[in-house]
Amino acid sequence: MRKFSSSECSIVVEHQFLMKTPKQVLTEWVAAYNARDPYILAALYHEDATNIQVALGEPLHGREVMLESFISFFQAFPDNCTHIENLFEDGEWAILEWSGTGTFLGEFAGFTPTGKSFTLRGCGFFHVVDSKIKFQRGYFDKLTWFTQIGIPITSESDGAAYSNPK
C-alpha cells in the first residue's frame, strides 16, 4: 500500500473541500438567478461553456456571451423568479425542473415591453465539471411563454436573439 506525504494529503483534502457537487452548483445558480445577479451567474460557468435553449435555436458559447444574455433578460424581466420543482444529480450532471414567473417590462429580443406577466415550467440539464457549468441544455414551451407576454410567434421571433438562462 502506498503512503502519501502530508503535503499530498493536504492537496487532496483541499481539492475535495473546494469542489462542489452539481446539485450544490445548481442551488447557487438558482439563488443567483433569483437575486438577478448576472455576474455571479456567469461566474458559475466555464469560460468556454455552451448553453442550448432548444426552443430558441442557436446556442450560446462562452461565459461573456452568457453574461450579456443574463443582463438582457434581467432588464426585460426585472421581477422574474424561478422555483425549484425538482433537482436531481447523477455523477457530473444536475437536472433542474423549474417553474418561473415574471413581467415583460423592458425590451426583449427586439420587442417592446407589454407589461404582461408569464408563468412557465421547464427543465434544464447541466454538466458540471470542476464545480462549474460546462454545458447546459434547457427545454420550455416557447409558444406558451410568447403568447403570455404578447410576443407574436413569427419568423422574426422564431430565432429570438436571446437565450433564456434556465
Name a few traits of the molecule.
166 residues; alpha+beta; Nuclear Transport Factor 2, Chain: A; six-stranded mixed beta sheet; globular; disordered C terminus
* Helix percentage: 25-40%
Biggest sheet: strand arrangement: 2-1-6-5-4-3
CATH C-level class is Alpha Beta
Give the total of beta strands.
Answer: 6
Short synopsis of the structure:
This protein has 166 residues and is an alpha+beta fold. 35% of the residues lie in helices and 33% in strands.
Structural description of this entry:
By secondary structure, the protein is an alpha+beta fold. The chain has one domain: Nuclear Transport Factor 2, Chain: A (Roll), CATH 3.10.450. It contains 6 helices and 6 strands; from the N terminus they run H-H-H-E-E-H-E-E-E-E-H-H. A 6-stranded mixed β-sheet has the order 2-1-6-5-4-3. The longest helix has 14 residues, at 63-76. It is globular and about 45 Å long. The chain starts with 5 loop residues before the first helix and ends in an 8-residue tail after the last helix. 28% of the residues are buried. The model is unreliable at 9-15 and 161-166 (pLDDT under 50).
Q: Which helices and strands appear, and what pairs or packs with what?
A:
Blueprint: H1 6-18, H2 22-34, H3 38-43, E1 45-53, E2 60-61, H4 63-76, E3 81-90, E4 93-103, E5 117-129, E6 132-140, H5 142-149, H6 155-158
Parallel strand pairs: 1-6
Antiparallel strand pairs: 1-2, 3-4, 4-5, 5-6
